[in-house]
Amino acid sequence: MNLFEILRFAVRGLTANKLRSSLTTLGITIGVAAVILLVAVGNGASAAIAASIQGLGTNVVNVSPARGGGQGASARPLTVQDAHALVDPIGAPDVKAASPVVNTTATATYGQTSYDISTVAGTEPAYFTTTNRDLAEGSLFSSEDVTAARKVVVLGPTTAESIFGSSTDAVGKNVLLNSIQFTVVGVLQAKGSTGLQNADDVAIAPISAVQNSLAGYGSLSQIAVQATSADAVTLAQSEITAILNARHGIRLGGTADYQIQNSEQLLATRTSATETFTVLLAAVAAISLLVGGIGVTNIMLVTVTERIREIGIRKAIGAPRSAILGQFLAEATMLSLFGGLLGVAIGLIGSRFTISGIKPVVVPSSILLAFAVSALIGLFFGSFPANRAAKLRPIDALRHE
Question: Could you tell me if 179 and 202 are in contact, meaning their C-beta atoms sit under 8 angstroms apart?
């Protein structure tokens, strides 16, 4: 029996039970589609985060409270005075600007509309330049607004549309943030969403007003620092470290109660996190493939049991062991390949849609890997029932009831 005949017998065996064959491929289809789609979502999230961080600029340095570090008696929170001390032409000539930032959340109310703003940032005017936030409507708040603690706010486009229905109608209107009235003075240009984080869902107000009415006078969430140029980032970090160590009483070799990251470090950290996230997603999806493979084994064992007398007759008239082995192995592999092809098609179609704000980015290697694994699953999980059929003695098979 040649290869063509083996494949012909395998196709005939599969088409004899179309519904059962279709249901068997379902597990492989779901597994392959899940691997392709979840890897694409992970890569899409990584690309969006990279674009967001790069959009901040290459000369931005972020100072934030250390997690787990500086917990001793000398640990001090970051303060507005710390941020102002970093702008020192003598001690920090490579620092162009530094903005204290306090982040909190608030519920915005306008008329009958209520909206939960994910990020309300209290800061100073230099923050807009440091983070490359451009204005679409109205104006930014000024240093005088910060000094007077005026309750004015600049909204992101998503926030403005959610509260007022349109970002173009927001300027000049009053909105309640946690029942405290703020006046909208401007709306920012859109920067896009990065899935879990939406840079356009933000409200930015003078830090004095936010601390007075929303966040309180605790530690700063961060200090956004702008170096004089991208080449001066390393020098700026050294100068920031020297100034903060002196202000916080941190001696040489001591544990700092703050951490400094530039855009490249932030990008590396976020990329590492999203890669881990992607691997976890792919591992979960791979479990579906494993379950699908077990289903193939189960169905092929049932098929072998149902066709024992057929196997006995073929062996009795001279069919070699390799022909029986090849036929059932071909059936199992065909089931997996068909399920794999269907899974690839579903994965590619699904990746054309935005999922939870993330635009999936399909990686060709994930398609090839998922499809190859589906074929190997057919060979691996089909080998046991095929080998069992090939080992049957003709006399035992013919006696089977």
Answer: no
Is the entire prediction scored with pTM above 0.70? Answer: no
Contact yes or no for 150/101 (Cβ under 8 A): no
Q: Is the dihedral of CA 333, 335, 338, 343 positive or negative?
A: negative
What angle (nearest 5°) sits at the alpha carbon of residue 251, between those of residues 246 and 256?
80
Are 42 and 278 in contact by the 8 Å Cβ rule? The answer is yes
The pairs formed by 265-271 with CB atoms below 8 angstroms and a separation of 24 or more are 266/53, 266/62, 267/49, 267/50, 267/53, 267/54, 270/46, 270/49, 270/50, 270/53, 271/46, 271/49, 271/50
Q: Which helix (H) or strand (E) holds 112?
A: none
Q: Which of 296, 371, 305 is nearest to 341 (CA)?
A: 371
Q: In whole angstroms, how large is the CA radius of gyration of the chain?
A: 32
Measured CA to CA, the distance from residue 282 to residue 38 in angstroms comes to 6
Distance set, CA 241 to CA 75, 183, 222, 264 (Å) = 15, 38, 14, 18
Task: Fill in the DSSP letter of residue 260.
Answer: E
d(CA 398, CA 29): 36
Interval 346-368: pLDDT, tens:
989 988 888 777 788 888 888 88
Which residues fall within 8 angstroms of residue 174, CB to CB, at 6 or more apart? 110, 181, 182, 183, 184
Model pLDDT for residues 126-170, shown as the tens digit of each residue: 898 888 888 888 999 999 999 999 999 999 998 999 998 877 788
